[in-house]
Amino acid sequence: MTELITASLTVGQISLPSCLFVNESSGSNDTDLDQDRCFIPILVLNSVSLFVCLFGLAGNGVVLLLLGFWMKKNPFTIYLLNLAIADFGFLLCMVVFLVIILLNVPGDIHGGFAAREAIQWVALFIYNTGLYLLTAISVHRCLSVLFPLWYRCHRPQNLSPTVCALLWALSVLVTGLECYFCITRDNCSKMTIFSCVLSFLVFSPLMVLSSVTLFIKVRYCSQRHQPTKLYVIIMVTVLFFLVLALPLRVIVLMALLSHTAIHLLVKNLVILLPCLNSSINPFIYFLVGKHGRRQVRESLKEVFQRIFKEEADPQEKRPTKRAQEPATEKPSEHG
C-alpha cells in the first residue's frame, strides 16, 4: 500500500518505496508528460478521496461513540469497535496525506515529505489491521453457527478482546518488518511480497471461506427462519472489502512481480477505493438495521441496539431460563 501511494504521487526514485513502481525502461520525460496530462483527473480523484474520507470520519466517529460509550458490549460489538477504530485511523491518515498533496497544487504536487512517508506506513499498519479484524469477525461468527454448543458453553469469556489485541500486535509486527526492510535494507520488495502473500493466502481465504459458509448456512436456515441482520452485515461488509480494499494489495503485488509502471490514474483510483471501503461500513450497519422498518422512526442508537442485541451471550440467558422453571413447577407440587 505504501509503495502504491508513494509511487502514484512522486516523480522518479525519490524514496525507496517509489523505486518499486518506476519502470526502469521508461525515461523521466515520458513520466513528466504523463503527469502533465493527468494533472486535472488526478486532482479531481484526490479531491473526491478527501471528501469521502471526511464523510467516513463522521460516520465512524458516530459508531465509535455508540459502541464505545453508549451501548453494552458483547463479543461482536468488541470486534466492530476495533474495526471502527481501524477505519477511523486509516481515514484520518488519508485526510492528512491528501491535504499535504492538495496544498502543493498548482505547483509541484509530487514533492516529497518525510511526514508523508510516515503517514503512509501508519496507514498501511491500520489497513493490515482492518483485514485481520474482518477475518476474525467472519471466522468468529462462522464458528458460532457451526458449533453452537461449543460457542455457548466452552468459548473463553475474553476471547474477543484477546483476539483483537493479538491481531493489532500482529499488524505491528508485519508492518514494522516491512518498514524496517524497506528503509534499511535492499530487499524491500521481498518483504512486501511476503506481506501480500500473508494477506492473500492466509487471511483473505479464511475470510472468504467463513463468509461463504455463513452464507450457505443462512440460506439454508432462511427457509424456516428470517436470517438475522447480523449475518447480513458481516457478508455485505466482507463483500465490499473484497471489491474495494483488496485491489490495493493486488496492484502492489502485480507491480512488484511484473516490474512495470502503473498508470497514474489507476494508482490514484486504487487510493480512492480503500477510502470508500473504510467510509461505507457505518452506513451498511444503519441501512441493514433499518431494512424492513421504513415507517418506524428510530434513532441511530436504537437501530444499533436492535441489531447487536442478537449477539447477546447465550450463556447469560440460559441460567435465567433454568431459574424460572422450578418456580413454575412449585404450585403443582403443593396442589
Automatic annotation (TrEMBL):
Domain called G-protein coupled receptors family 1 profile: residue spans: 59-285
Cellular location(s): Cell membrane
Gene3D superfamilies cross-referenced by the UniProt entry: Rhodopsin 7-helix transmembrane proteins
A GO term from the CC aspect: plasma membrane
Region (Disordered): 311-335
Major subcellular site: membrane
Keyword Transmembrane helix listed: yes
Top-level taxon in the UniProt lineage: Eukaryota
Topology class, membrane: Multi-pass membrane protein
Molecular function GO labels: G protein-coupled receptor activity
Keywords: Cell membrane, G-protein coupled receptor, Membrane, Receptor, Transducer, Transmembrane, Transmembrane helix
Regions crossing the membrane: 39-67, 79-105, 125-151, 163-183, 189-218, 230-257, 269-288
Family assignment from sequence similarity: Belongs to the G-protein coupled receptor 1 family. Mas subfamily.
Protein name per the record: G-protein coupled receptors family 1 profile domain-containing protein
Species of the source: Pelodiscus sinensis (Chinese softshell turtle)
Lineage: Eukaryota, Metazoa, Chordata, Craniata, Vertebrata
